[in-house]
Amino acid sequence: MSNMQNTSAPVRRHMGLRASRALGNTAIYALLIAISIIWLVPFVCIVLQSFRVESTWQVGYVVPQQWGLDNYINLFQTDFPRWYLNTFISALVTAVLQTVIVLCMSYTLSRFRFKLRKPLMRFMLILGMFPGMLTMIILYRVLKDLGMTQENSVPGLILVYIASSGMGYYVSKGFFDTIPKSLDEAARVDGATRFQVLKKIILPLSKPIVIYTILTAFMGPWGDFVFARYIAFGTSKGMNVAVGLYNWLNKDQISKFYTMFCAGGVLVAVPVTILFMCLQKYYVEGVTGGAVKG
After folding, report:
1. Is the pLDDT of residue 93 over 90?
2. Burial of residue 33 (number of CB atoms within 10 Å: 0-12, 13-18, 19+)
3. Cross-strand partners of 250
4. Mean pLDDT of the region 102-122
5. Comparing C-alpha atoms, which of 198, 192, 212 is closest to residue 284?
6. Rounded to whole angstroms, how far apart are CA atoms 173 and 250?
7. From CA 44, how far away is CA 84, in angstroms rounded?
């Protein structure tokens, strides 16, 4: 009898732990579902409003009474295609150049040892703590003197986006630190140059961090509003989609362009959403891998 009591106690304890774990998981899942619903409701409303054709102003209901693609068709009769092209060019060029700069800087700080290496890293870390807003006035003056504002704002924005991109080396360097240096040494013994080591050994092993760097470099210019509006003010030809669509929300135009604004927001969000969902695996691996070492 005592043996049966001794064996039943751990069983009850184990069942109690399983029940408490199941209850905790249920509460966490319920909380996550509630947060997801709250987060998705505004996006669902924007999508529904983009298909509303019975009126173009704001209304007190969400589900359209008449459905159609008129708002999407009318978008291409405005300056929206120009704004979209400006944004795409800025994001694409920035993604390519910024990725190259960041990966080269990260590889240099990860593999090379030179006298001012640590002071340089500390300097870039401290410099990165200052908000970019502090430099907006002087940057505007420099870009204006170079003729890179208003209708020529795209080259100016690209220049600003990539100017300090080397300071974002932290995550990439952490990922490169996880790759054994013995691979570099073996390749160097076989006669490979530093560039060949980076191109043929390090980068193929660093696919997650490369994709992570490309995504972050692309999404920054794609969604930029503050600096883009500051540089391209007053000229529709130089605006990106964020600035152009925002202008439709002023009190003089919102009644005419509200549903078109919703359609434009959908067209801006869809490509980035698809790109992120397809590459989400590598994005997460890049973040977690780069956080192992610093």
Report:
1. yes
2. exposed
3. none
4. 86
5. 212
6. 44
7. 22
Q: pTM for the full model?
A: 0.81
* 293: confidence class by pLDDT, cuts 50, 70, 90: very low
**Section 11-39 average pLDDT:** 80
From CA 218, how far away is CA 58, in angstroms rounded?
32
Letter for the amino acid at 222?
A: W
**Cα separation values, 52 from 49, 155, 258, Å:** 5, 37, 10
Q: Residue 50 is encoded by which pair of tokens?
A: 């983009």
The pLDDT of residue 205 is 84
Six-digit token string for 264: 């434009």
Could you tell me if 90 and 160 are in contact, meaning their C-beta atoms sit under 8 angstroms apart?
A: no
Q: What is the DSSP letter of 69?
A: S
CA distance 87 to 264: 13
Tokens encoding 96:
């390519």
3-state secondary structure of 143: helix
Q: What is the predicted pLDDT for the residue at 81?
A: 92
Nearest 5°: CA angle at 45, between 40 and 50?
130
What percent of the chain shows pLDDT beyond 90?
Answer: 12
Per-residue CA distances from 43 to 58, 62, 74 (Å): 16, 12, 21
Q: Per mean pLDDT, which range of 10-24, 126-140, 186-200, 240-254 is the poorest?
A: 10-24
Interatomic CA distance for residues 211 and 31, integer angstroms: 31
Residue with tokens 């751990």: 10
Alpha-carbon distance of 139 to 151, in angstroms, equals: 16
Question: What is the residue type of 198?
Answer: L
